[in-house]
Amino acid sequence: MIIERFRQEKERQQREVYKQSPEGASPTFKEILDHPVYSDMLNALLENDGQNYLREKLVKREELTQDDFEKLYQYRIKIKEALDRSKEVLDILNSPERIELMASCSPEFAKIVGVLGAEETLDLLKRYMALIYVKNPESFNDLSSKIETITQAEQQLQSLEQQIRDFAEAHKIPSNIIERFYQLSAQNRTVAEQSLITDIRKNLSFIGKIRDFINRGEFSYEYFKSLNKIDEIEEQLNTINQNLGEIGNMIAEAIESSGTDLLSKYLYGRRIEIPSFSFKNAGELIEIYGSDEELEREWQEYLEDQEVTDWEQIDDEERATIKNGFKKHLSRKNQEKFGKLFDWFFGNNGPLGRFVNSFLNSK
Predict the structure, then answer these.
(1) Quick count: other Cβ atoms within 10 Å of Cβ 99?
(2) Which domain holds residue 56?
(3) Residues 111 and 171 in one domain
(4) Predicted TM-score (pTM) above 0.70
(5) Is the pLDDT of residue 272 over 80?
């Protein structure tokens, strides 16, 4: 029993190490193929790298080679990195106010906020930060170190806050005196410092006041120095703002590299739908429509709906109109599905688009 408990703990630790490794961390590649947003990210990577044959293999559910699996492993790592970095960015940009702060630190990012406003910019990043990253990783060099620097600065601010509160509590200085000092310091530091010294002296005990008088104010001034952390705080705030500005420049550069499609649609109030079409969906539709028999059945039903009774007697122009209508009909049957993968899949160059075109050309 003793050995078994030891073994269970060691195995638990070993599993945790695995879960944190690239191989064990979510998402798995199966999850990527099943998930519409992840599928859109994979589609962007495959498209950027010209891996159309691999993209078609995935939607047609063809057998993959060892070389294919090696490539897909690397794509999975890139998607995982994009998701992690995206979460880190959104953790520090978690409100419209933070968006405005970043805009004040980054002239390039401010241009985007100037187009959309803080709330719409935040919505855009929540929906598309990971996709923006995966399409433009070169724009985000050194992103992790800048986020880490911001995190450390935030921790330093928390430490300074605790030091101030501990000192005030130990020396029985009311918290409202400290809070008033820091609030006033943001507006007029000189006046705030004079006010704090006055408040400290008023709050000294009888013995403390005597000591302060004998030492010509040095006693109260020591209190003042322990409570006045403005310089240290401003140093950390400047560090945060500098790195926020640099991250803002990265985001602006990446959005610019991605083209103006996102900004244009948000500008006109047409928020882009979150992708809802996955590689798994594509495979299912290939199975449904990827045979002449099924397409023939759909085609005959469509002709009947259009009240076409004698196809052979229709002229070429009307035939072309009906064929185009049939392709739109198939697309509308799946109109709840969105994303670049869906656009490619049903487009003239996509596997289902080509199959349908070939089918219609025979008519």
Answers:
(1) 23
(2) 2-138
(3) no
(4) yes
(5) no
